[in-house]
Design a protein that fits this description.
The chain is α/β, with parallel strands linked by helices and 293 residues long. The chain is built from ten helices and nine strands.
Length: 293
């Protein structure tokens, strides 16, 4: 298999098989992220993709799901993506679900009709690393789009019938804009109606501009209690009926599951309990020990 850099994959999807079709990230400029900082973006050569699928056809001929890599493989145009999906179906004829993580901006270069055709070829589910629905926060961390872009592109996905996840990055606005980040994100996410909302807590990794800003006093990170309070505010204002996953915050391990609206009050109560009685020092230590997103 032609894996050319560190492999990041969705841990909630099957870990095998994986198929790399691009290298690196087209944006690669978010101020909190170093995942692909030293990897130049390029499309994987088609011959490599075909060789990998030939290998998978030997070791996993009955595969029904596959996860596309790397950071945002759906940046490729329809004309480049469609032949790859057709090749997947040729070598893995029982394929049912093709999944990929991607950026909001990657949907712009595809019409609704093209998205529908990609779904027919098996692209059933994607993750959008949205991080925030608040324009101030999106600008602050250099995501490269605004809330209006999120709404517009998610509407296209809904019309095409492609299921999608959206991520909320707890703490990324710092103390200065925490509540606005939580409330506006919940409002935008609710309007988009994703099948799943995932949340993770900000860690300031070495080499990130956001850590440098924090060291200079230009960014004030939240402590663990403030992170939980922000997450609680986000949950309180989230109104879409989705599945809900939260990680990177130790309290969240018991809050993950389907039917968010049915469980919303119990999630809020659990967060309240953690705010009042949780081992915040242990949570902070776990966060400090994280090496990567």
């Amino acid at each position: 298999m032609h894996f050319t850099d560190t492999v990041y994959r969705n841990p909630y999807w099957p870990t095998f098989p994986l198929l790399q079709i691009t290298q690196g990230c087209t944006h690669n400029d978010c101020s909190f992220c170093t995942m692909y900082r030293n990897v130049d973006f390029r499309m994987q050569p088609m011959e490599w993709i075909e060789e990998d699928l030939q290998e998978l056809a030997q070791v996993a001929p009955d595969a029904r799901t596959i996860q596309l890599l790397s950071a945002n493989p759906l940046c490729l145009s329809y004309d480049k993506l469609a032949p790859i999906l057709e090749m997947i179906n040729h070598y893995l004829p029982k394929m049912e679900y093709i999944y990929a993580a991607t950026r909001v901006t990657d949907i712009r270069n595809k019409s609704v009709e093209e998205l529908k055709k990609l779904k027919e070829l098996g692209l059933r589910e994607i993750s959008l690393g949205v991080e925030s629905g608040d324009d101030w926060t999106l600008d602050r961390v250099n995501k490269g789009y605004h809330a209006s872009d999120i709404i517009e592109q998610c509407a296209k996905l809904n019309e095409a019938g492609i299921d999608f996840w959206m991520t909320f990055l707890n703490g990324v606005a710092g103390k200065e804009h925490s509540m606005e980040h939580a409330i506006h994100s919940a409002e935008i996410f609710s309007q988009c109606e994703p099948m799943l909302v995932g949340t993770g807590g900000l860690t300031l990794f070495p080499g990130t501009p956001l850590l440098e800003d924090a060291q200079k006093g230009a960014f004030a990170p939240l402590n663990e209690k403030e992170m939980l309070e922000e997450l609680k505010t986000f949950v309180e204002h989230l109104t879409c009926d989705c599945s809900f996953i939260t990680h990177h915050t130790i309290s969240g391990k018991n809050l993950t599951g389907p039917d968010f609206l049915k469980r919303k009050e119990s999630i809020i109560a659990a967060l309240d309990h953690e705010i009042q009685h949780g081992n915040l020092d242990m949570m902070a230590a776990i966060r400090r020990n994280k090496q990567t997103l």
